[in-house]
Amino acid sequence: MKLVIDTSVIIAVLANEPIKKKLIKLTKGAELLAPKSVHWEIGNAFSAMLKRKRIEVSKVIKAIQLYDSIPIEYLDVELEESLLIADKLNIYAYDAYLIACSLKNHCSLISLDNGLIQAAKNFGINIVEIE
Q1: Is-above-0.70 flag for pTM?
Q2: Which end of the chain is more exposed for a tag (fewer CB within 10 A), N or C?
Q3: Which domain holds residue 44?
């Protein structure tokens, strides 16, 4: 099973959030896909945590080492198509990239971002429900 994974899920796992075990269970055995933008969003998320003094750089380095071990296939998505999706749904391009990636690969999306989940549902994308 192919599954598009977003930054919120990856960060929750890396940061040992209480939902980590459930996320791992839901993604176990799946072929994880993501638009290339997710890789840079991971860096941005950690830099924001560093800037706000919510994490020490040594913990970020450990988290990135763990991140590097997660088998995610990073894919290109069409910029024009993504911007058409962004316009139609009135969302940011980063969310549109995830929707475009799901469409292109005919697969479901997993996210903790309620805005992205609703936009993806409105566009007909199947969502892996996290209870």
Answers
A1: yes
A2: C
A3: 2-122
